[in-house]
Amino acid sequence: MKFCCFNPFPWPDLAQRPDRWPFPNSAYTSDAGQKLFRQCIDQLVYAEACGFDWVGVGEDHMTAYGLTPNPMLILSILAERTTCVKLAVLGAPLPLLNPLRVAEECAMIDVISNGRLVAGFIRGVPQNYAAYNIAPEESRQRFAEAHELILRAWQETTPFSWNSTYYNFPHVSIWPRPVQQPHPPIVYSANSETSAVFAAKSRAAIGAIHLYSLDAIDRVKSAIDAYRGQAARDGWEPDPEQFIVGFQTCVAETDELAFRKLEPALNYQYQILSGTFNAEKKALANKPEGYGYTPVEESPPTLGQRLDNHIVLCGSPSTVTRQIEYIKDTLGVGVISTHMQVGNMADADVRESMHLFGSHVAPAFRSDSKLHQDSVTTSYKPIAQSLGWHVQQTRHIHRSKWFDIVQDQLVLPSNEQREYTYIDHPGSVFMVPCTPEGQIVLIRSYRYTTDSYSWEIPAGGIGDHLELALEDVAKKELLEEIGAECTELIPLGSRFLGNGMAKHRAWCFIALGARPAQPTTDDETEHVVQIEVVDRDRAKQMAIDGIVDDGDSALALLLALDYIDRNQSLFSQDKK
């Protein structure tokens, strides 16, 4: 499965819900607005470090529900601040926009992100038609025309003219064109069977990014069934990743703690930020040729009702894992969109939820999260497949509890056959120990691979501790290597190490309150010859000068020191 981190950019400080739409902007302040955008953008950047496959942004107008009138601007920032995560607009309301402008902006995002755009196209919610003064009765025809024009603009290599009921362009020839050919992946709405059938005819994905009503899962299932039915009539079978469903999500150490965090945030979202356009929605739904079904939020369900009807993800990592398993079995979806920034939930709680999801929940649904049982298989690498790299065979030429050595036989687009050998590593944890006074603990160890002594930080692989949470592995390694316990572990996210020769993700932590003592390991190959406590400035210089010559340790040190510099209150007695 794939996982998306979606962020609606909700305004966190509204005292009460307005009587009607649109929202008066008198409560907006520039300082709070800048803080909100920095916080939400930083969360989406952090999502890549947590291991999410996509990040997503929607589009809203004249509302505090979501401050994203142009999601393309957000994606352009994320294109520069991330490296591999997919960038999804979920979605662009085509009937409200100039379709050529959409085609051009999407192409630009795809180019500057090196082919990472996922283009979600929707009709949009009724209040946005009021914002742009466009008749919602025209939405379906406008959508169909805009969709066809955008696809043609992306693919045509010679100028053409376009004439339809709502759009007339005598000259069309967009620059640039998208990196992904024939076009970026497309996602349409799964809010109705009509939309699902339309998407299936185009072989586009469908998504229900927001679940409001208690019967939402049944509605989504009906749409997916309609999609599968149309695909069967057209003679093809859709992949699970063509079905996307989104949930407000909160993961915490325990179910009770997660409930306590999510419930007030949900109440703020539905009692303050939502519901100002309910009367107009009802009127539109009742028109014979109107907009169609759209959910209203007059009596929002309680958190308990949402949990009972499977329209939120909330609880400990094991609870959320079971909730996703139910959704996967019931709907057959391949992409889950998580809405971590719910209402006015605190940034620290959102980040903790993202970290727990990435380190404890998502790995349970990865195809490579468990050791392969067969010696010869076929690796599933969808991006390689999209590039025309065909994996003929995967052979595991070495296995151990620490890592596998994998050999793939590839056929490239030129028909050249290529052998690709790499290390398939289950992952590692790296801990930067900090004493209560704010000093850094380093160790000097013997490394057989380089036959040298190396200054580094405590670290260890998770391959022989797959039954443990990442934090528990980190605490175990800390005790073994420097004989210390810590008062708190602060997650710094994760990074791939040596990605030219290995699939190896490392999770980094700051270990606060660590006082070094005697190492407890009885493994003769874990040969620690020196433990040194140094000031933070000295630790930073050692990493920069190469005295800490283990690159992974140097990276973790610099990440930790940057975090500490931005959070000086971590230490009561600050000694740099």
Which blocks of ≥5 consecutive residues have pLDDT under 50? 368-378
Give the helix level as a range of percent: 25-40%
* Secondary structure tally: strands: 23
Mean pLDDT: 89
The span between the termini is 44 Å
Number of discrete helical segments:
16
Overall morphology: globular
Main beta sheet: 8 strands, parallel, barrel
Strand percent estimate: 15-25%
Global structural class: alpha/beta
Strand line-up across the major sheet: 1-2-3-4-7-8-9-11
Give Rg in angstroms: 26 Å
What does this protein look like?
- By secondary structure, the chain is an alpha/beta fold.
- 36% of the residues lie in helices and 23% in strands.
- It has an 8-stranded parallel β-barrel, surrounded by 7 helices. It has a 5-stranded mixed beta sheet with strand order 12-13-14-15-21, with no helix packed on it.
- α2 links the parallel β2 and β3.
- The protein starts with a strand and ends in a 10-residue tail after the last helix.
- About 2% of the residues have low confidence.
